[in-house]
Amino acid sequence: MGMSVTISAATEQDAEQIFRLQYLCFQSEAALYGNYRIGPLVQTLDSVRAEVAADCVFVARLGEEVVGSVRGSVTEEGAAAIGKLCVHPRLQGHGIGARLLRAAEAALAEQRGAKRFRLETGHRSEGNLRLYRKVGYETVGTSKGADGVPMVVLEKVAGVYATTA
Length: 165
Prior knowledge:
Number of strands: 7
Oligomer: single chain
C-alpha cells in the first residue's frame, strides 16, 4: 500500500464518502439478518450531513479515501452513544475499528464530558461483539432495533482501555 491509515475528526466534505462507505459496509449486516431496512442502509445523505455537523464523528483515511467511520453523541445522562462504526471490507481486521473507537471515546470524554460509553450491535454480529469486548465493553442488556433486529447492548466506563486492542 505504501500509505498509512490516519484517524481524524470528520468534516462536512466527508459526509458523502461516509454515506457511501456505510452503505457498503452494512450490506453484510443486512445479509446476516435478512433485513435490508436496517438504519445505516436507509439513512439519507442529508441525515449523515446533519450528524457530521452536530455529533462527534471520526473517519479513518487512506490517502484521500475515507475507509472507516464512527459517530458518537452524549445523552442527557452523561452517557455517550456510539454507533455506525464501519471499516471498508478490504481493511477489516487491521485494528482500524479499535482506533476509531478510541478516538471517539477520547473526544466524547474530554470535549463533551461523557462518563460512560454505550453501543449496540446485532445479536448475531460475532465480529462486532469480539471487537467491542476486546476494547473493554461488557454486555449490559438487550434491546430490539427500530428495524426489529435483536440487539446486544454493551457499555464501558470512560477511561477504561483494554491493553490488548
